[in-house]
Specification:
Length: about 210
């Protein structure tokens, strides 16, 4: 996606605040952070929503959410990401380890980059359609940051019973863990526990 420097500034500030606080800023907080008017922030946020870089729920003050397709230029490190297998966005499939690489520079030229976080970054090919509501389709590649914990609402790579991997939104509840699809045709997966292998931080569309 093509963003202006001002739009990119808004996105990176939202990202940083979500990482440090654990929740999204309000429009007024963004305006204060960037030293601009609230009207200006509204305009930039609306432009980012139209471009698919940002999502927002109506009538909620802290609902700004960055699209998993967005990778900021200040997070770049390398053009090649290890492609370690396939992940089910549907019924769980066996976790498969295979050593290939997804070369973003070949796909996108010099703008293709990997998120720089200090943690291991890897890619998985998506199999299934249970996450289509979040814009993740069969055959896409999800870019993941290796992690063993997750916050509620994050899209994760979860290993169930040590051998079946699935891609879902993570929610920890009193009775256990709910792995929530983004497709009404699928039921949530409820487990006592699961092993988080990574958190989705980006997406590469397989078919344009």
């Amino acid at each position: 996606m093509t963003l202006t420097p001002k739009q990119l500034e808004v996105l990176t500030r939202i990202r940083d605040l979500r990482l440090t606080r654990g929740y999204s800023p309000t429009m007024q907080e963004l305006a204060d952070e960037l030293g601009v008017s609230k009207v200006t922030i509204f305009e930039r946020v609306e432009a980012l929503i139209r471009k698919g870089a940002l999502k927002r729920s109506a009538h909620k003050a802290r609902s700004l959410e960055i699209s998993p397709r967005f990778l900021a230029p200040d997070e770049v490190e390398d053009d090649r990401i290890p492609l370690v297998g396939r992940i089910a966005a549907g019924r769980p499939i066996e976790a498969i380890e295979q050593r290939r690489f997804l070369d973003l520079s070949e796909l996108f030229g010099p703008q293709g980059r990997v998120k720089k976080t200090g943690r291991k970054i890897f890619a998985l090919e998506v199999s299934g359609d249970s996450m289509v509501g979040d814009g993740i389709f069969d055959g896409d590649y999800v870019i993941c940051e290796q992690a063993d914990t997750a916050r509620n609402g994050q899209t994760v790579v979860a290993l169930i019973e040590g051998e079946e991997a699935t891609l879902k939104r993570f929610y920890r509840e009193k009775s256990g863990i709910r792995l929530q699809p983004a497709n009404e045709a699928y039921e949530p997966i409820f487990v006592d526990d699961c092993q988080i292998q990574g958190i989705v931080v980006g997406l590469v569309r397989a078919h344009f």
